Amino acid sequence: MNTDTGRDTADDPGAPTRSAPGETPPAPPVTVRLALPTDAPAIAAVHQASRQATMPYLPPQRRTHDEVTRWIREIVLPQCHTFVATRGPELLGYAAVQGDLLDQLYLRPDVRRRGIGTLLLAAARRHRPDGLHLHVFQLNTGARAFYAHHGFRVVAVDDGSGNMENLPDLTLRWTPVPGPRVPRGTP
Predict the structure, then answer these.
(1) What's the pLDDT band for 105 if we cut at 50, 70, 90?
(2) Model pTM greater than 0.70?
């Protein structure tokens, strides 16, 4: 029984959940919102940690945390529609969309494979419902599998001469599948 309202919480999905004495309280839900300029240091930390953990084939990072934070604050946030996934005060990941380009989607390494990337991708798709494209390194098999699972298809292959890492990459595209057309005048 929820003593604050006199209602049984089992009958009210919106009621706050309480843990029994000695139990760990449930974690707050993951939410997705637009990024704020004050998120830049946390976004930079996610960016750096994710690239280091998921792309060991990249050369060692040359940029400091402050330099990456400045890039996020001065370039990414003003130029992109940037979403962040949070749990309470923790920033777990981010996605940046510029036009129809999904330019960035990174997660903290410790929260991968928990549906957070899917939540960020869903926010990007709602923002660009006509479709998205992105670039991914050919060596990034984890990201390639994630995007393939979510309906992205390879539309171009590149030798890497066009990216700063000089690594072969792929251009992937997601285009929504049209739903069934309801004839006009149908109730």
Answers:
(1) very high
(2) yes
